[in-house]
Design brief:
With 485 residues, the protein is α+β, with helices and mostly antiparallel strands. The protein has 2 domains: 96 residues, Immunoglobulin-like; 309 residues, Alkaline phosphatase D (PhoD) (Purple Acid Phosphatase, chain A, domain 2, 4-Layer Sandwich). Helices cover 21% and strands 26% of the residues. The protein contains 8 helices and 23 strands. The chain has a 7-stranded mixed sheet with strand order 14-15-16-17-19-18-20, covered by helices on one side. Strands 11-10-9-21-22-23 form a 6-stranded mixed sheet. Strands 3, 4, 5, 7 and 8 form a 5-stranded antiparallel sheet that branches. Helix 3 packs parallel to helix 5. It is globular and about 70 Å long. About 4% of the residues have low confidence.
């Protein structure tokens, strides 16, 4: 046989075996990925909500990875300087959700050998891979522990995440209660990189029984901007993936409230849009992303001495540009009637109306969106007069980027502004101390801690040191606060 033909045949044979090896290795690699049985992640953590004497909601989300993709955009881990006003959009892949199933195991602390176990429930991308478990028949004033197990669709390997919380004391029981209130947090105000907000680490030191977030949990209209449903969901996915934020919500039950920036955009009202995001989209996403019951306004009783009311300030409001008068409202007639009725009926020693926005103020210049502003003066005056006529009734508000304790010169109503999550979120605009109103004023951020013990109460404003992570009490008010002389 011709020598050149033999060489050609050997060369072809070598190429054949090389191709066979490449194809085989590729098939094995793709098959291992295709048939791998790996547990899912819980990058966005869990949320414990709506705790009562005998019930609670547990929110969970299945993700493809155990940790968020913090490197998908540099500002997600570095924060933003005030000068950075770019039109950067929120990436959608920070913590991708997956389809799968979840179940809940829970038990009284110290009795892990006797857990209650739910059936498996499906989670789907159509609901951002989230699910909310409803726990009923719990014992009052009791510590519970739980774990959520998850599986990818069609697979058996189980991943898990654990948490704990305490139920409210029985209505007639006198027991000490400690809780925290905070407001206004954003990607651009993180102060601990991948760990998120240092304040959440410091809040655990206060040992609260529950936490109230008054809204502006995420900012759709601040960079990175979220102008679509997918981008809005991604902001929620990220915010609860940060280390400190995630750990806090695994250990403390929360009551979540919404305001303008986590509904749509600044000072929004029903019917508006922001990019492709509609107002109704914002309402639906909020319910999807936090554990919440039937109504966005509600009240909770914690033992004999404490009751809180959480108002809804976006769903039922009039347009801001409408002239003020008896028909202009933030609360809407149904909610306002419910609020007055339940407050009158309450025999709790201390009553706290917690509002996304202020009722007393004074507010910063140019603002016309809340009950302390001229735009809603009629309803604001009505509420201040009503609240001040109730014994030991106080207002706690969010939204403002400074801490304060105000006393209305006309009605003596006390309002406590919890301030933003940290100093980095101050963003200016505070009106400065007004001696006619302020018992306490500070441009600091941090959180408000309240302790109720029988007939005595105490409110403490905390600041958080960004460098060391330590917190310090900036001001204390003893409750009840005496009327002005």
């Amino acid at each position: 046989m011709n020598r050149k033909i033999l060489q050609w045949m050997k060369k072809c044979w070598g190429f054949y075996w090389l191709a066979l090896v490449v194809v085989t290795v590729g098939w094995v690699d793709s098959s291992s990925r295709l048939f791998a049985d790996t547990p899912p992640g819980f990058a966005s953590g869990i949320k414990i909500g709506e705790v009562t004497t005998d019930s609670a909601l547990i929110w969970v989300r299945l993700t493809d990875r155990a940790e968020a993709n913090f490197d998908s955009l540099p500002i997600l881990t570095e924060g933003l300087e005030p000068s950075e006003k770019s039109q950067v959009s929120m990436p959608e892949n920070v913590a991708s959700g997956i389809e799968g199933t979840v179940r809940l195991e829970y038990w009284k602390s110290g009795f892990s050998d006797h857990p209650k176990v739910t059936s498996w429930h499906q989670v789907k991308p159509t609901t951002n891979s989230t699910y909310q478990f409803e726990m009923k028949g719990l014992d009052s004033g009791t510590h519970y522990e739980f774990r959520v197990e998850g599986r990818r669709a069609g697979q058996k390997s189980v991943g898990m995440i654990e948490g704990r919380f305490v139920t409210a004391p029985a209505f007639g029981r006198r027991a000490p209660v400690r809780f925290i209130v905070s407001t206004c947090q954003a990607v651009r105000s993180i102060d601990a990189g991948k760990q998120g907000h240092i304040s959440y680490q410091r809040m655990l030191d206060f040992n609260p029984m529950f936490f109230v977030h008054t809204g502006d949990i995420v900012y759709y209209d601040k960079v990175p901007l979220a102008k679509t449903v997918a981008q809005a969901r991604a902001k929620w996915d990220l915010m609860f993936s940060y280390g400190h934020n995630r750990k806090f919500h695994q250990n403390i039950a929360s009551y979540f409230m919404k305001d303008d920036h986590d509904t749509l955009k600044n000072d929004c009202w029903p019917g508006q849009k922001y990019g492709e995001l509609k107002f109704d989209d914002g309402l639906a996403i909020f319910r999807e992303q936090v554990p919440m019951g039937t109504h966005t306004y509600r009240t909770f009783r914690w033992g004999k001495d404490l009751q809180i009311w959480l108002t809804e300030n976006r769903d039922f409001r009039s347009e801001n540009r409408m002239p003020d008068g008896p028909g202009k409202t933030i609360l809407g007639p149904v909610q306002k009637s419910w609020l007055k009725k339940t407050l009158k009926e309450s025999d709790a020693t201390f009553k706290f109306v917690i509002s996304p926005g202020p009722l007393v103020g004074p507010d910063k210049k140019g603002k016309n969106d809340n009950h302390s502003n001229p735009g809603f003066e009629t309803e604001g005056r009505e509420l201040r007069e009503f609240f001040s006529g109730l014994e030991n009734c106080y207002v706690i508000c969010g939204d403002r980027h400074w801490q304060y304790c105000s006393q209305d010169p006309k009605t003596d109503l006390i309002e406590m502004g919890c301030g933003p999550i940290n100093d980095q979120h101050k963003f200016g605009g505070n009106p400065g101390r007004d001696p006619q109103y302020h018992r306490y004023f500070s441009d600091k951020g941090g959180f408000l801690g309240v302790t109720i013990d029988g007939m005595a109460g105490q409110a403490e404003w905390f600041g958080t040191n960004q460098d060391t992570g330590s917190s310090v009490v900036l001001h204390t008010e003893r409750l009840p606060i005496n009327k002005r002389p």
